[in-house]
Amino acid sequence: MIRSHAFKNILKKENVILWGVLAFQAGFINAGGFLACHRFVSHVTGYGTQVGLNFTEEGFLIALEMMFAPISFIGGAAFSAFLIDRPYYQNREAKVGTSLIAQSLLLILVFVLGEMGVFGEFGEPIVLQRDFALLFILCFICGSQNAAFACLTNGQIRTTHMTGLSTDLGMNLVRIPFLPGDEKEKTYQRKLNWLRLFTFFSFMWGSAIAAFVFTKLGYHGFLVPALTSLVVLFQAHHVMKIYMTEEIPKLR
Questions:
Q1: Count of CB atoms within 10 A of residue 110's CB?
Q2: Is the distance from CB of 46 to CB of 40 less than 8 angstroms?
Q3: For residue 112, what is the domain's CATH number?
Q4: Which of 206-218 are b and which e, b meaning 16 or more Cβ less than 10 Å from the residue's Cβ?
Q5: What is the pLDDT of residue 176?
Q6: Predicted local distance difference test score (pLDDT) of residue 125
Q7: Is 3 a domain residue?
Q8: Cα(first)–Cα(last) distance of the chain, in Å?
Q9: How is residue 42 annotated by DSSP?
Q10: pLDDT score for 58
């Protein structure tokens, strides 16, 4: 799978479906992580503050352990970049499927280990090393998911946190009326804003449904994003198939 070519048009219907599923999955995992270990896992913004506070409130060791959450997210991002970006620069096929299947298998592993009691009782406070292990695995998964399609879209799509998306949405609300040039660019920017809103609400609905699922099912809830990872894989290959049959002949 060649980076960005099939996914370059982020407003194409097939791609929009993909972004929606990814945002839903990210919201689901984030809510599940919070309910499981009382920490959000799909973004690292707050960890810098938490580490600083823990140095004074909880002690050096707790702060040091908390530092591994963003490190795990970075590790997940590096894992996907190794499978997707590295082959791109080597003129080889990107291993998108490997990244997505690995994410699915890790989520299944979280379910299995959770049911075996390795992570303790679902929802217990993050105090013991086993609680931190769960946090680190979930952060790794989210970093891997976020980087996979950031690589494929050359950084245009990031679905595990809404900060940058919300910033772009707000700026565009002011920018669009004052854009110089033709109406075509304004129309494109309006469509981008609708895409951002769709992504935001997909993330929100993923979180809302996760709250219900995890409250009822505990660790079994992680099977849902494990399945949606496979849905993402199927949809990504569907996008590639359309690109191969419709776009490549036009380029020849």
A1: 27
A2: yes
A3: 1.20.1250
A4: bbebbbebbeeeb
A5: 83
A6: 73
A7: no
A8: 19
A9: S
A10: 60
How far is Cα 157 from Cα 196, in angstroms, rounded to an integer? 10
Counts for the chain of helices (H) and strands (E), in that order? 9, 0
Q: Which domain holds residue 215?
A: 13-242
In a domain, 59, yes or no: yes
Q: Provide the pLDDT for residue 1.
A: 46
pTM for the whole structure: 0.88
8 occurs within a structural domain:
no
Q: Which residues 6+ apart lie within 8 Å of 152 measured at CB?
A: 1, 3, 4, 6, 7, 84, 94, 96
Instruction: Return the structure tokens found at 144.
Output: 């891997």
Within a domain: 226? yes
Taking a C-beta distance cutoff of 8 angstroms, is the pair 204, 30 a contact?
no
Cβ-contact 41, 34 below 8 angstroms? yes
Please give the Cα distance from 104 to 111 (Å, whole number). Answer: 11
Mean pLDDT by 10 residues, the chain (252 residues): 70 91 94 87 73 66 76 93 85 85 95 90 75 88 91 82 83 82 82 92 95 94 94 88 71 52
Using an 8 Å Cβ cutoff, are 45 and 113 in contact? no
Structural tokens at position 17: 């479906």
Q: How many domains does the chain have?
A: 1
User: Could you tell me the two tokens for 90?
Assistant: 């080597």
